[in-house]
Specification:
Distance between the termini of chain B: 98 Å
Distance between the termini of chain A: 68 Å
Order of helices and strands of chain B: H
Number of strands of chain B: 0
Strand content of chain A: under 5%
Radius of gyration of chain B: 29 Å
Helix content of chain B: over 70%
Oligomer: heterodimer
Chain lengths: 209, 66
C-alpha cells in the first residue's frame, strides 16, 4: 500500500515537471500571439489610411486639373480652395495613422526573440529614442538662443527709437504709451523663453545623471 | 527508503526549475521598467521642446508688433 502511494506521488511529480515548462511556454506564446495580432491590426489600419490619403490626393489633383481650364479667371481662388481641401484630407488621413501607431512600435520586429532578448531590444530602442529626443531638444535650445539674441537687439533698438521719438516730440503720449506697452510685452516674452531655455538645459543635465 | 530519495530529488528539481523561471521573469520586468523610464524621459524632452517652440512663436509675434 505504501509503495503504491509512493509510486503515485512520484508519477504525479513527474507529470508536474513535464507540464510546468509547457504552461510557461504557453503563456509566453499567448503573449507573443497577442503582440503579433496587434501588430497586424496596426499595419492593416496604416495601409488603409495611406490608401485613403493617396486616393483623396489623386482625386483633388484630378479636380484641379479639370477645374483649371474651365475657370481660368478664378483659377487662383480655386487653387487655394483645392489646396486647403487637399491639406484637410491629408490631415484626416494622417490622424488615424498616428492613432494606429499610438501604442509605440515596440515589439514590431520581435520575430523569434524570446522574453529576455525582447526586453533587451526594447530597452535599447528606448535608450536610442531618448538620445534622439535629447539631441533634438539641444538643437532647439541652440537655435532658440540665436533667436533670443536677435530679439534682444530688436527690442533695444525699438526702445531707443521710441525714446528719441518722444524727445523729438514726433509721437503723442498715447502713441508712446502704446509702443512702450508693446516693448514691455516683447520683453516679457523674451524673459519667458530665457527661463524655459534655462530649465531645459538643467533638465537635460539632471536626466543625464 | 530509496523512493523517498527519488521523491526528494524530483521535488528539488521541480523547485529549481520554477525558481529559475521567476528570476528570468524578474530580469525581464527590470528591463521593461528601464525602458518605461527611458520613454518617459524622452517624452519629457519632447514636451519641453514643444513648449520652447510655442514660446518662441509668441516672442516672434511680439517682436513683429514693435
Amino acid at each position: 500500500m505504501k509503495t503504491e502511494k509512493f509510486n503515485l506521488l512520484t508519477i504525479l511529480l513527474v507529470c508536474l515537471l513535464l507540464i510546468c515548462p509547457d504552461i510557461q511556454a504557453q503563456s509566453k506564446k499567448g503573449l507573443e500571439n497577442k503582440a503579433k495580432n496587434e501588430k497586424q491590426t496596426i499595419e492593416t489600419k496604416g495601409k488603409d489610411v495611406k490608401e485613403k490619403g493617396k486616393s483623396a490626393e489623386d482625386k483633388v489633383v484630378k479636380e484641379v486639373s479639370e477645374a483649371e481650364p474651365a475657370l481660368k479667371e478664378d483659377s487662383a481662388e480655386i487653387n487655394e480652395e483645392v489646396q486647403e481641401e487637399a491639406e484637410k484630407l491629408e490631415k484626416e488621413g494622417e490622424e488615424p495613422e498616428k492613432e494606429a501607431g499610438k501604442g509605440h512600435a515596440y515589439g514590431k520586429n520581435k520575430g523569434e526573440l524570446k522574453g529576455k532578448e525582447f526586453g533587451q531590444q526594447r530597452a535599447a530602442e528606448a535608450k536610442e529614442n531618448k538620445e534622439m529626443k535629447k539631441d533634438e531638444l539641444e538643437g532647439e535650445i541652440n537655435e532658440s538662443q540665436q533667436k533670443l539674441d536677435d530679439a534682444r537687439v530688436k527690442i533695444q533698438t525699438a526702445r531707443e527709437k521710441l525714446e528719441n521719438d518722444k524727445k523729438g516730440k514726433k509721437i503723442s503720449d498715447a502713441e508712446y504709451q502704446e509702443k512702450a506697452q508693446k516693448i514691455e510685452n516683447a520683453e516679457k516674452q523674451l524673459k519667458d523663453v530665457e527661463e524655459k531655455l534655462k530649465n531645459a538645459s538643467e533638465e537635460i543635465k539632471v536626466k543625464e545623471e | 527508503m530509496k523512493k523517498i530519495y527519488l521523491v526528494i530529488l524530483l521535488m528539488a528539481l521541480f523547485f529549481a526549475g520554477c525558481g529559475q523561471g521567476s528570476s528570468k521573469q524578474k530580469e525581464i520586468k527590470e528591463l521593461e521598467k528601464q525602458a518605461t523610464e527611458l520613454d518617459s524621459i524622452a517624452k519629457k524632452f519632447e514636451q519641453t521642446k514643444e513648449d520652447i517652440e510655442k514660446s518662441i512663436e509668441n516672442l516672434d509675434k511680439a517682436i513683429n508688433e514693435l
